[in-house]
Amino acid sequence: MHWSAGIRRTQAIPSRGVSAQLIASEITRAIEGNPELCDRAGGEVSPPPFCLEAKDLRGGYEVTTPERVWVAFDWLSHHWSAKDLLISFERSVTDAASEAASCFNYRAQAYGAMLGTAQSALVPAAEIISLLSWPIAFAP
């Protein structure tokens, strides 16, 4: 599972920040059906992870981009521990969130060039909050 946070913005201010939807889309693209994320044990190969649910966390339609998105994955393993799986998931999420920021910055700069203006500031890479850093997550 993944919870993604972005910046709420309107169509009128497209370069204000990355939407949670773009971040979640890149994460889904990186994980969905990726054979590199299959576990192997005893001659068996687990199926790759698949997205079970993806939705924004708004109460209804709004004219702004969602600032929070929920994405849930089904990820089977044969011998990986929960910690091993979360390490792999965190690596995929970190890489995908960085790709989302790069994509947004490239597009914002291109749009600014079309308008003859500069993007005010580049969007930094996302901060990832990991369950692995929580002391209770994997306590004996």
CATH architecture: 2-Layer Sandwich
**SSE ordering:** EHEEEEH
Shape: elongated
Q: Indicate the radius of gyration in whole angstroms.
A: 17 Å
Report a brief summary of the structure.
The protein is of the alpha+beta class and 140 residues long. The protein is built from two helices and five strands.
What would you say this structure looks like, in words?
This is Arginine utilization protein RocB. With 140 residues, the protein is of the alpha+beta class. The protein has a single domain (2-132), classed as Alpha-Beta Plaits, CATH 3.30.70. The protein is built from two helices and five strands, in the order E-H-E-E-E-E-H. It has helices at residues 20-31, 82-115, and strands spanning 2-5, 40-41, 44-45, 50-56, 68-74. A three-stranded antiparallel beta sheet has the order 1-5-4, covered by helices on one side. A two-stranded antiparallel sheet has the order 2-3. Strand 2 (40-41) and strand 3 (44-45) form a beta hairpin. Helix 1 crosses helix 2 (82-115). The two termini are 23 Å apart.
Question: Which features would summarize this protein structure in a list?
Answer:
single chain; 140 residues; alpha+beta; Alpha-Beta Plaits; 3-stranded antiparallel β-sheet; two-stranded antiparallel ribbon; 2 helices; 33% helix; elongated; Arginine utilization protein RocB
Question: Which helices and strands appear, and what pairs or packs with what?
Answer:
Elements: E1 2-5, H1 20-31, E2 40-41, E3 44-45, E4 50-56, E5 68-74, H2 82-115
Antiparallel strand pairs: 1-5, 2-3, 4-5
